[in-house]
């Protein structure tokens, strides 16, 4: 039997749990990226560039882990992680100044 022909059943609770895992992973990545931008004393668009780069790398990694089967992993939780990024960026920036 060919692997591509196997259909995996999708259930609502499993999809919600997977989306929660993706969102938590993006939150953790955003906090680490914010701390990195703060330690490097980045300001303005350079700091947000760190966020964009971190989210792009996370999207590529998650897309590769899912073997390209679900394009929703590219954007799930990106905007929800932005406030955490800004919070950690400003906190670490002010503490390291």
From TrEMBL:
Keywords: Endoplasmic reticulum, Membrane, Transmembrane, Transmembrane helix. InterPro entries: Emc6, EMC6-like. It is a multi-pass membrane protein. GO terms for biological process: autophagosome assembly; protein folding in endoplasmic reticulum. GO terms for cellular component: EMC complex. It is found in: Endoplasmic reticulum membrane. The chain crosses the membrane at residues 45-66, 73-95. The keyword Transmembrane applies. Belongs to the EMC6 family. This is ER membrane protein complex subunit 6.
